[in-house]
Amino acid sequence: MDYNCWYECIRGCGTRYSIFDVVYRCETCGGLLEVRHDLAALKQKSAAEWKQTFVDRAFTTAWPYGSGVWGKKEWICPLVTDENIISTYEGNSNLFWAKRFGEELGMNELWVKLCGNSHTGSFKDLGMTVLVSVVNQMISDGKPIKAVACASTGDTSAALAAYGAAAGIPTVILLPKAKVSTAQLIQPIANGATVLSLDTDFDGCMEIVKQLTEDPQIYLANSMNSLRIEGQKTVGIEIVQQFDWEVPDWIILPSGNLGNVRALGNGLKMMKDLGLINRLPRIVCAQAQKANPLYRSYLDGLKELEPVQAQKTSASAIQIGNPVSYERARDTLIEFNGVVEQASEDELANTSAQADRTGLYCCPHTGVALAVMKKLLNQGVINPKERVVVISTAHGLKFSQFKVDYHQNRLAEVDAQFANPPVELKADYGLVRDTIHQLVK
Ligand SMILES: *Cc1c(COP(=O)(O)O)cnc(C)c1O
Ligand SMILES: [Zn+2]
Predict the structure, then answer these.
(1) Is 180's pLDDT higher than 90?
(2) Which ligand number lies closest to the CA of residue 365?
(3) Fold that domain 95-121+229-407 belongs to in CATH
(4) Which ligand is nearest to the CA of 14?
(5) Cα(318) to centroid(ligand 1), Å
(6) Domain boundaries in the chain?
């Protein structure tokens, strides 16, 4: 069976391109592009057969199908040959049953999808494997691509640098100076990327990278490039697969540039179109109050986006005031009966710490999603009997300074209710014993 995919304008003007063309927007109407698949060809195989194929491939070594992304290759990017694929066997991340945390909140079933348990520590690996594989194929077909570039709030750049290094393709990273964590800064440096630290914020870096990539020799790796969305699309499919093909009631994710919510929606919709599921979950976009353009638009009926100047937030990966994928996200929210809610610095930090005490190790963005979930429970929007999945987008270990500052109660606008600083004592047995008996309850 021959499967096919292509870029198509999301505004419905009908313009199409090959996925091997260097193009990021519709040249007819300026709309964003999206990868579309030949669903008729995919329907030749039954829903039951697809499910079995996906289950059979997971965790195997037959290249590249053991990857959570490439195990679904026909649905993601059938046109790349297996030899050109650059994969770290991303995906297949675990669903954490947050039993204790859920019980503290009176919930029946809370699950956290740990996308940060991945090669570079965030979900960005899922999309980057597809983008870099396509570029690899373009280069081996003789296209004059010199480097792949991105603006980043820290996680996109780590993923691009790692996959670029694995492929032997040069990468260029534009980071906002002093606005990413130490771990995020050192990742692309270690992988040999050309790292430029610019005296601006993410939105400023994005403007410059858009200009840079007008030169077709510099290929754009931001999520405006919809190849990333194709790989990220597997997250929703994986969640449903992990529940033995049952659809949860809610999926909550932290949102910034708004590519991932579109990806989540597209994967679930494809499952419905191909008959693997017969209903859709509701989706919640969780935003930091300091960078909340989508939330503001939601309050106004999602009529339009008014860019804001993003303020400093611990959830630095979503500190974005002018999200590129607003149009894509709006349509997804409408289709999935979606909700947008925001969390303050105090809410995201304290919720993150509260969840950590039940065995999680949350990045601040996951803290935003969990805090928003708490609010929606309190508002009665989410029923505590429903099955809720929170997407944890990065590993907490990338954000050590956030946790150190929290436990020293040094975060701005945060009253650290769960601070647990180490106790400094003289090395004296009796003193240590008495202190332990006093503190351990
Ligand atoms: C990129 C990122 C997000 C936001 O995803 P968008 O597609 O930009 O909405 C959230 N959390 C983390 C940790 C990220 O790296
Ligand atoms: Zn168009």
Answers:
(1) no
(2) 1
(3) Rossmann fold (3.40.50)
(4) 2
(5) 6
(6) 95-121+229-407
